[in-house]
Structure formats: structure tokens, C-alpha cells
């Protein structure tokens, strides 16, 4: 029988997304590449069976307590928050939460877990939306929360070095005091950790201007599954000495190593920021406005986001946020960031005049002061929160050629008829990234069966990505084949085996079940 420390699942209780347990795929951790191999049929999102990892014993606890005294948590009330994801859609049953403060501590923990065959679920701010940051069964939760020191900031180059557990908003405030900003900004900034941002290659609201973390992250320190510390913590803009290994860990969702420190290139704080909130009659007009905006605002444009009328309805109903302009089918948030307030305002006003006279935009409002800028941004940033009050939410994060993104929403509405409560579209127009969200009063397997695989087939038909910026985690892992060739996925499996031969790091995530 399992040691007393480990609670077995209550009878009939499902772990994670588990509904119908699927037989363990093959148990083989070594997979050969076969040319022309058939792509496996994706299984439902149900979690695979627990793999035969060891269970935590009192001896293991004694070891952890010696390495990180007072920072081994077993209190069920504290563990509850770390076992459940932000959406409350995935639940694990871990009984151990470890809070290291240093890279050396992470190294010792992983070296030990690897030798004992104990599975580990790395966790940052736990704000992910695909079930990637919580355990599925009894994996040990390895939190970066106490690894929150800035290591260095070079005010000439703008290069920041910090530990992985720094909260994004704290880093932003730290940099703003020094006349710099972070190159990324997300709705979850108050909780998410930079290590988690990098591990998931989070996109967010500024990607249009500053690019993805694949460009702005200059270096990483990563603890590998066996405890070795990989020092790629470079601070160079240019470095072509061999393969760029840090890219493997960016977006790997904690399955290849635990990121412990990051160096990141930060832009100067803009002297002038303006936000315009505009309304359009059709998505066609919204796209024309985007084109015009790129032409007229070019170098000062820092965000071009959208939400539809349904999103606005949910913001009004659930969060009591008022629409600052007349009711429209589509709303745009445009942000400019530049170095000359007079020049930027003049450009923005010329653009708005042109957009209004050519009837691309029906109504709009502009903000230059911080409080109003914040209020306008919250209409875009808080859609996710509004959706959580609308019911059970099915979330899709799709990349498509920009002119196609809203067609998926209209096709989905037509396809579902009155079976869904709300079908909404919003997202990052500038990046060709749609957030399609569908709600129902409660979890509804029939509705889900109507949405999937329809949404994935639709996306694959236009060579889109089924996960633009949220990653695959537990929920989307089996749909990877809709966006990646079989050979690419098989190579990913080989990399996983090379770096984590026992598969202890964030098991059941990112890779499809046939490669777990
Ligand atoms: O909740 C979502 O689907 C999207 C969340 C986030 O990526 C956003 O852009 O607001
Ligand atoms: Zn987004």
C-alpha cells in the first residue's frame, strides 16, 4: 500500500481532466523516427494514467527539509492553491510544495528527484490557461515564488538579469524607476513570474512592437532534470557560437528543464503614451483601420488589439465596466509609444481624422493621462475575467493569417447555433492571434464535442496554429499534430528523452500521449 503521506484518489474521482482513463500508450520512452509514419489520432483531453513514478516517502521529506529548511510545505490549505489552475479547470493531488530560493537548491532538489524517480511540476505564478502549471497526480510542486531577486540591471544597455520568480509587474515597476520598461505586458502581470513567461513564451500586449521573448531574452540559466546547471546566462545581443540552446527552453513549458534566471533586453520607457478606443461597423473595416494605422503611425504604434460586441456585453454585465463610446460590432484598442508627445499626438489625430472621414471608424475616444489609459486598457485586459463569470469557458488561442481571424468566430457561431451561451472573439490583431472563447452554463461534453475537432480542423485548413501564445500544457497536448508535422513532433520527443530520460519534468504536458 502507498506510504501514509500519499493520499490515493477518492473512488470515482477524476484527476486533472481525466474522464475516461486511456491505457498507457506504450511505456516506451525511446522512440525512433520513421519516415512517412502515420499521425496518431488525437485522444480526448483526458489525462493519461499515472506513470510509475515513485511516491514521496518520509525519507524524501527529511532530505528536502535538510536542503530547504522551513520551505517544504505540506499544509493542505496552502497546497490547494498550487494544485488548482487559475481557471479552476484542472486539479492535481500533490502533497508536497517546495520553495527553493537559489539555483543551487533547485539543482539539489532535481538531482535527488531524478535519482529517486520522483515527478516534479515546476510552477511560477500559476496563471496559465492550458493546465500546464499544476500537477496532474501527485507530482512534487517546485515553486519559483521565493526566487524573486533582481540580479543586475545595466542602465546603458538596458539588460536586466533576474531570478525566475520575479513577478512581471514588480519588474516593470523596478524598470520604470530607471526609465526602462519590460518588453512584454500581460493581463496577468500582477501574478505571473518572468520564469513562467519565458517557459511558456508568453506573448501579450506589446509583442507587435517589441517582438517575442525569443528575441528579447538574451540568456537563461536552467537546471536540467538531473540537477546539472546549464549556464547560458549571456548578456550579448549577438552570439553565433553554435546552437542557440536557450531557445529550446523558451516555450518548453517546464518539460525540458527548470528556468532559474533570465537576462532580458529592455526598451527605454516611452516619453509619450496614447491610447485610442475605437468602434467599427465590420471586421473588414477593422482590418482597413489596421492597414491605415500601420501606414500612418508606423514607428510609434505599440499595440493594436480588438474585442467584439459580445465581449463588451460580458464586460458590462459581469464587471459593470461601461462602454466609453457608442455600441459597435467591433472595438479596437490602439496604443502609441514614442519619444515626442507633440509629434505623437499630432500623428494620432491625423490618423483618427482620416479613419473617421473614410468611415472606417464610427466612434472613438483618446486618452493621454494614465488613469484614463488604464481604464481603456482594462476593457481589453479584463475580457478573460468577465468570461469566468459567464459560465464554463472553452478557450481557443489561434494564430491565423490576420484577414481570416474573425471568420472562425462567425463560422463557429453558425456551427453551434443556440447550443452555446456566448461565443466571443478578441485578441491581438497585430499578431494575427485570435482568442475564441465559448461559454456554457456548466461543463458540457456535448457542446465540447461540437467545438472540437471542428475548431482545430478549421485552423489546420488555413495553416494556422492551434496555440498561438498559451502553449499546449495538459489540455492541448494531443492536438499538436494539427499544427506540427509528425517528424517535428517526433524530434521533440527525442529532445525530451535526451534532456529528461526518466520523464520526471512536468509529465503529461506539452508532448502528445504517444510520446509521454
Ligand atoms: O483568456 C483568453 O483566452 C486570453 C487571455 C490573454 O491571452 C489575453 O490576450 O487576454
Ligand atoms: Zn492573448
Automatic annotation (TrEMBL):
GO CC terms: mitochondrion
Alphabetically ordered keywords of this record: FAD, Flavoprotein, Metal-binding, Mitochondrion, Oxidoreductase, Signal, Transit peptide, Zinc
One example of a Gene Ontology biological process annotation: malate metabolic process
Catalytic reaction list: (R)-malate + A = oxaloacetate + AH2
Presence of the UniProt keyword Flavoprotein in the record: yes
Domain FAD-binding PCMH-type: 90-269
Cofactor(s) needed: FAD
Principal subcellular localization: mitochondrion
E.C. number(s) listed in UniProt: 1.1.99.39
Function: Catalyzes the oxidation of D-2-hydroxyglutarate (D-2-HG) to alpha-ketoglutarate. Also catalyzes the oxidation of other D-2-hydroxyacids, such as D-malate (D-MAL) and D-lactate (D-LAC). Exhibits high activities towards D-2-HG and D-MAL but a very weak activity towards D-LAC.
Family label: Belongs to the FAD-binding oxidoreductase/transferase type 4 family.
Protein name according to UniProt: D-2-hydroxyglutarate dehydrogenase, mitochondrial
Gene: D2HGDH
Amino acid at each position: 500500500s502507498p506510504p501514509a503521506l500519499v493520499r490515493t484518489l477518492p473512488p470515482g474521482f477524476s484527476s486533472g481532466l481525466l474522464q475516461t482513463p486511456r491505457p498507457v500508450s506504450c511505456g516506451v520512452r525511446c522512440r525512433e523516427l520513421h519516415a512517412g509514419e502515420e499521425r496518431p489520432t488525437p485522444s480526448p483531453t483526458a489525462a493519461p494514467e499515472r506513470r510509475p513514478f515513485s511516491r514521496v516517502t518520509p525519507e524524501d521529506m527529511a532530505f528536502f527539509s535538510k536542503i530547504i529548511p522551513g520551505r517544504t510545505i505540506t499544509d493542505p490549505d496552502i497546497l490547494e492553491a498550487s494544485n488548482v489552475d487559475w481557471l479552476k479547470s484542472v486539479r492535481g493531488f500533490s502533497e508536497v510544495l517546495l520553495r527553493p530560493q537559489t539555483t543551487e537548491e533547485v539543482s539539489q532538489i532535481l538531482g535527488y528527484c531524478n535519482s529517486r524517480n520522483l515527478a516534479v511540476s515546476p510552477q511560477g505564478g500559476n496563471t496559465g490557461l492550458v493546465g500546464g502549471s499544476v500537477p496532474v497526480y501527485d507530482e512534487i510542486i517546485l515553486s519559483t515564488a521565493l526566487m524573486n531577486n533582481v540580479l543586475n540591471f545595466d542602465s546603458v544597455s538596458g539588460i536586466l538579469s533576474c531570478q525566475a520568480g520575479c513577478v512581471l509587474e514588480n519588474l516593470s515597476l523596478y524598470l520604470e524607476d530607471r526609465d526602462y520598461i519590460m518588453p512584454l505586458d500581460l493581463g496577468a502581470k500582477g501574478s505571473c513570474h518572468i520564469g513562467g513567461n519565458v517557459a511558456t513564451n508568453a506573448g501579450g500586449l506589446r509583442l507587435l512592437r517589441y517582438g517575442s521573448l525569443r528575441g528579447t531574452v538574451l540568456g537563461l540559466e536552467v537546471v536540467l532534470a538531473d540537477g546539472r546547471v546549464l549556464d547560458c546566462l549571456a548578456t550579448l545581443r549577438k552570439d553565433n557560437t553554435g546552437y542557440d540552446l536557450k531557445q529550446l527552453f523558451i516555450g518548453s513549458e517546464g518539460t525540458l528543464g527548470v528556468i532559474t534566471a533570465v537576462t532580458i533586453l529592455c526598451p527605454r520607457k516611452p516619453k509619450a503614451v496614447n491610447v485610442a478606443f475605437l468602434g467599427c461597423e465590420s471586421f473588414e473595416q477593422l482590418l482597413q483601420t489596421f492597414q491605415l494605422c500601420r501606414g500612418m503611425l508606423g514607428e510609434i504604434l505599440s499595440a493594436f488589439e480588438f474585442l467584439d460586441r459580445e465581449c463588451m456585453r460580458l464586460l458590462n454585465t459581469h464587471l459593470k465596466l461601461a462602454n466609453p463610446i457608442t455600441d459597435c460590432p467591433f472595438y479596437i484598442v490602439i496604443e502609441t509609444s514614442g519619444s515626442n508627445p507633440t509629434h505623437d499626438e499630432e500623428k494620432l489625430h491625423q490618423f483618427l481624422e482620416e479613419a473617421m472621414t473614410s468611415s472606417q471608424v464610427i466612434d472613438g475616444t483618446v486618452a493621454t493621462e494614465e488613469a484614463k489609459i488604464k481604464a481603456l486598457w482594462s476593457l481589453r485586459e479584463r475580457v478573460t475575467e468577465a468570461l469566468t463569470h459567464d459560465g464554463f469557458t472553452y478557450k481557443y488561442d489561434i494564430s491565423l493569417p490576420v484577414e481570416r481571424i474573425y471568420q472562425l468566430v462567425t463560422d463557429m457561431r453558425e456551427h453551434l447555433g443556440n447550443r452555446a451561451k456566448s461565443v466571443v472573439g478578441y485578441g491581438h490583431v497585430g499578431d494575427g492571434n485570435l482568442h475564441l472563447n465559448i461559454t456554457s452554463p456548466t461543463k458540457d461534453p456535448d457542446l465540447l464535442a461540437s467545438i472540437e475537432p471542428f475548431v482545430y480542423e478549421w485552423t489546420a485548413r488555413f495553416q494556422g496554429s492551434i496555440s498561438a501564445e498559451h502553449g499546449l500544457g495538459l489540455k492541448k497536448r494531443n492536438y499538436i499534430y494539427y499544427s506540427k508535422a509528425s517528424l517535428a513532433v517526433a524530434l521533440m520527443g527525442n529532445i525530451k528523452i535526451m534532456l529528461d530520460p526518466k520523464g520526471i519534468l512536468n509529465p503529461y504536458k506539452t508532448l502528445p500521449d504517444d510520446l509521454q
